[in-house]
Fold:
Amino acid sequence: MPGKLGLPEILLLLAVALLIFGPSKLASLGKGLGEGIKNFKSAVKEGEDAEEKKP
Structure:
């Protein structure tokens, strides 16, 4: 099926990214992505909490 990423495709993408960016840059990109996801989740949770407190 088109549009579906399996394990081989993901591994190939990671290998290409490793070749392009190098290991140190790839690690910092992963760290930044993880922090961004964490901040997004906390903002969504704060929004849900604010909606629950409305009368």
